[in-house]
Structure formats: structure tokens, C-alpha cells
Write a structure and sequence with these properties.
The protein is mainly α. 78% of the residues lie in helices and 2% in strands. It has a two-stranded antiparallel ribbon. The longest helix has 39 residues. The chain is globular.
Length: 346
């Protein structure tokens, strides 16, 4: 009888982890698909997408986290203002970079370089030191991103062979997008370090941080209101579709946006649950595998240009990420564990 509660508890923990992993894969992968559907129709729709995501998550947090504003924050608002400034900048720049001939596969690969930025800023700001395997993994990730970036640059040049001026303009336009992604990568890493110091001082309040990170930046979208309104008009003029059962006719772009917002929320919630259920190593591995599946789906379903060198670069990036998270060491230790127990039993 005493074994029953233990087994039930173990099953419950496993079910919680499995549920979180399902949320991450379904939510995040669907989010990438819906974003690509939006961007293919209107490449400049990054601002309206970001605004819709922020508004939805802020409303959900206002109702369920702050109890309609009655619950006081555990972390002082002034600290959230600093964090929010960085978070808002990163989110807007990442989405706006898609305006500059940045293909979704390159966008995903480039954002996988967050480990590089975290390590560089960790060394500079926190004076951290890493093992040789960590430096090797970062070198692999850097090399993989470099290969993919160079091959994408060549594709931009080939696609604009009409005249030398057109080719140069397209390349410079693309280069601005790469610079934006690089800046957002470093800013995101800096925000992570700032969050780390806040959590050490005040404790972890992930739900609260999620709400304030999405609520406080909302006034900032007034600066982008003209662009957001323009895309509202574009979305309303898109092809209408009839929703089954309801019989309501809605422009297709608004449906894509709704799916994107909901899947973004599911993705974020899945990652949050996973961080409470699993070690950070497991979270990193799940997120990395999710990015890889999203990348493969983007290439195959949307037929994005992807050469052999792109595959080489992608493989190197993911190899470096797995090396950084020390997955192989963990797998060996897990396999060795039962064998050690058997020997002790003998």
C-alpha cells in the first residue's frame, strides 16, 4: 500500500513533464507556422503581431496573475521598467528584422545563437569562466551561424542580379536586418543577466515578470500606431473565409493572427511549466529540439531556399548546442546509473 502513493506521485510528475513538452512543441511549432503565413502575405507585419501578442498576454496576466490589479508586485516596478525596455526593444527588433529580406530559417538559426551572446556577456559582466567544452561548443555555434549567414548573403545577391545597383541595395538592406538580429541577440542576453540578478535578490516570480514584461510596454506601441493601423486595414482587406458551424465570414489574415497569438501564449506557458518540472538542461534540450523541428517544417512545407551548406551550418549549430548543454554526459550518466545499482545489489 505504501508503494501506491509513490508510484502515483511519480506518474503525476511524468505526466506534468510530458504535458509541458507537448505544450512547447505544439505551441511553439504552430506559432512559427502562423508567423510565416503572416509574413509571406505582409512582410512588414511584425509590429501588429508583436502588439497583439503583448496585449493578449497582458490581459491574461491582469486577470489571473494580478487579480485585476489588486496584487502588488514582489519585485519593484522600477526594476521592471528597465527589464521591459530591453524586452520591448528585443521583441520589436526581432519581428521588424523580417522586413529586411531575412528568411524564416535564417531568422530561427540566428536566434539559436543566444548561447554565444550569453557567454560573451557572462564573461564581460559577471566575470564568469567556462570549461574548454563550453568554448568549443560556442565556436561550433558561431561557425554554423556564420556558414548559414554567408550562404544566405549569396542567395540575396543571386536573387538580385538585375543590375549592380539593385544587387547592392538588396544586400545592404539584408545586412541591416542581420545587424538588427545581432543587436537583439546581445540585448536579449543582457536582459537575461539582469533577470538573473533580480531573481537572486527578490526570488523567482516568473508569472509576475511575464505580465509586467508584456503590460508595461503597451504605451510604447503608440509610436508604432500608424504602421499597426495600416496593417489592420491590410488584414481586413485580405481574402475572407467562412468559419464552419458559426457561419461567420472573417478575413484570413485575422485568423492567422489569432492563431499566432494563442500559440505564442501556449508556447510561453509550456516553457514556464517545463522550468518548474525539469532541470534547466532538459528545458534547453527541449527548446533546441523544438527549434530544429520548426526549422525542418519551415523548409519542407514552405519550400524556403536551403542549400547543402545551410544543412551543414544547421547541423553544426545544433551539435554545438547539445555539446554546451552536456546532453551526452547526462545520457551516459543515466545509462550508467542502473548498471551501478545492479552491481551494488550483487
Amino acid at each position: 500500500f505504501t508503494a501506491l502513493p509513490v508510484s502515483v506521485c511519480f506518474l503525476w510528475i511524468n505526466m506534468g513533464t510530458v504535458f509541458a513538452i507537448i505544450l512547447v512543441f505544439v505551441g511553439c511549432c504552430s506559432n512559427v507556422v502562423s508567423l510565416e503565413l503572416l509574413v509571406r502575405q505582409f512582410p512588414g507585419c511584425g509590429n501588429i503581431v508583436t502588439f497583439a501578442q503583448f496585449l493578449f498576454i497582458a490581459l491574461e496576466g491582469f486577470i489571473f496573475e494580478t487579480n485585476f490589479g489588486q496584487k502588488k508586485p514582489a519585485i519593484p516596478i522600477r526594476n521592471y521598467v528597465i527589464m521591459v525596455t530591453m524586452f520591448f526593444t528585443v521583441s520589436v527588433i526581432n519581428n521588424y528584422a523580417l522586413n529586411f529580406n531575412i528568411a524564416m530559417p535564417l531568422h530561427m538559426i540566428f536566434r539559436s545563437g543566444s548561447l554565444i551572446a550569453n557567454m560573451i556577456l557572462g564573461i564581460i559582466i559577471l566575470k564568469k569562466r567556462y570549461s574548454a567544452s563550453k568554448y568549443l561548443s560556442i565556436a561550433l555555434i558561431s561557425a554554423g551561424i556564420f556558414i548559414c549567414t554567408i550562404m544566405s548573403a549569396r542567395q540575396v545577391n543571386v536573387a538580385n542580379e538585375g543590375s549592380e545597383e539593385q544587387g547592392l541595395y538588396a544586400f545592404m538592406h539584408w545586412l541591416i536586418g542581420i545587424c538588427m538580429l545581432t543587436f537583439a541577440l546581445l540585448m536579449s542576453a543582457r536582459m537575461g543577466i539582469f533577470q538573473e540578478t533580480l531573481y537572486k535578490q527578490y526570488g523567482k516570480h516568473s508569472k509576475e515578470a511575464l505580465f509586467y514584461n508584456h503590460c508595461l510596454p503597451l504605451p510604447g506601441f503608440l509610436l508604432l500606431s500608424t504602421d499597426i493601423y495600416r496593417h489592420c486595414v491590410y488584414f481586413s482587406q485580405s481574402t475572407p473565409v467562412v468559419i464552419p458551424e458559426v457561419g461567420l465570414t472573417v478575413p484570413i489574415m485575422w485568423i492567422y493572427l489569432l492563431v499566432n497569438v494563442i500559440t505564442q501564449y501556449v508556447c510561453i506557458r509550456g516553457v514556464f511549466i517545463l522550468t518548474t518540472e525539469c532541470a534547466s538542461l532538459t528545458v534547453t534540450l527541449v527548446v533546441t529540439l523544438r527549434k530544429f523541428i520548426s526549422l525542418i517544417f519551415s523548409i519542407l512545407y514552405f519550400q524556403n531556399p536551403f542549400t547543402t551548406w545551410h544543412w551543414v551550418g544547421t547541423a553544426v549549430v545544433f551539435l554545438g548546442t547539445l555539446l554546451y548543454t552536456e546532453v551526452w554526459s547526462s545520457v551516459r550518466a543515466a545509462l550508467r546509473g542502473p548498471a551501478v545499482k545492479e552491481k551494488k545489489a550483487e
